Amino acid sequence: MSVLPGESFGLHVSTTAPGFRVSAYRMGWYGGVQARLVWRSERVPGRAQGAPRLEGATRTVRAHWKRTLTVGTQGWPEGAYLLRLDAESGHQRYVPLIVRSAHGAGRTVLMSAPATWQAYNRWGGYNLYEGSDGTYGSRSLVVSFDRPYDRNGAEKFMVYERAAVALAERLGIPLAYTTGMDVHRDPRVLRGATTVVVLGHDEYWTPQQREHITKARDAGTNLAIMGANTCYRRVRLEQGHDSPDHTVVCYKSSYTSDPYYPRRPALVTTDFRAAPAPDPESGLTGVLYEGYPVDAPYVVHTPDHWLFERTGVRSGDTFEHLVGVEYDRVFPGMPGPEDIEIVAHSPVVCNGRMSHSDSAYYTVPSGAGVFASGTMRWVEGLMAGTHDNGRNHGMDARTGAFVTRTTENLLRAFAVGPAARHRPPVRNNVQQVYQTLL
Fold first, then answer.
1. Residues 72, 22: Cα–Cα separation, whole Å
2. 51 phi and psi, to 5 degrees?
3. What is the pLDDT of residues 305-350, one digit of tens each?
4. Structural contact between residues 377 and 383, judged by C-beta atoms closer than 8 angstroms
5. Cα–Cα distance between 48 and 39 in angstroms, integer?
6. pTM for this predicted structure
């Protein structure tokens, strides 16, 4: 999933083509171009490797393939990379890779979400949602990184992360790169960081990752959550075929079958808010995931908030289709900050039930600010009105300009340091917004 600059990694490739080449592109901002070639392989002979194996009661798919080539990263800058594999038959495949930062002091840390990428990866017929027959009951309970990603190989990165990487690099603020799995193992990249950016879909967290991010917030590191459904599932990382932390364990509603149940309740893999050790994600994010699917306009509630500077918005302004496909909201009375400001309050209808999606902002005594967008489409909104992403859900250029300007305001402000020290204080408006529920 990641390497430090200068480290090597292995590619395990199966192809029916007689040969292929690998090109490594660093994603970012290069005068309007969003990728730069940093390395290209010689021709590599192709060979087809064995079929994947389905292992045990956990229905874990692993491809026990031999290493095809080893790639060194000497001279590669830290950053988010896509490796493109081009077969002589004309087929292409991507492999995402983070060349991670060892230290993040004074920098904005972009945190990719490979545990979530893997949870949804259905290569081999199984993921944490369904099995080969398409049913929830036949799903994997443990998924492995010892297999390729499905579809084009980088769908989650392309949809939920790439545009945020490009914008952050265009701003020229000091950046560091990591993954949630690396934060789980070693939180040193968070020490002294100005900000941690949680990208568009980061659902699966370990308790250790959450603890490390919370401690960083409480030491003054801002937190920008550019998605929804964040930190919803509690997972465990375990040994893979020949590498540590190469499997993601999440029993979900079958948590009583988790080997850690009931003796280690805080490590049982289910939703963070659920038994046997409930710890709702709102204690960190300020908002709670509520539902799927929705498609609704984003409605501005506090247009004079500093987040919306130079956007020209007024109270009640709407941006079509920006709320979806999952959403979060503030729940009065649930664990979370005492003072939180709802800056957008968007009516939604989810499975016939009327509710709202909220963008919200709060601060903590360290001065750190926390922003949660409340919609999974925020990063996709950065591409609205362009040809970068065909999955723009009907969002237009006006929406793209609004999301871009708001995100610029957020990242520039957070890059200065703890937001409460240089931005206006939080105006707690939860009772006013949700007065009928209190």
1. 13
2. -65, 150
3. 999 999 999 999 999 999 999 999 999 989 999 999 999 999 999 9
4. no
5. 25
6. 0.97
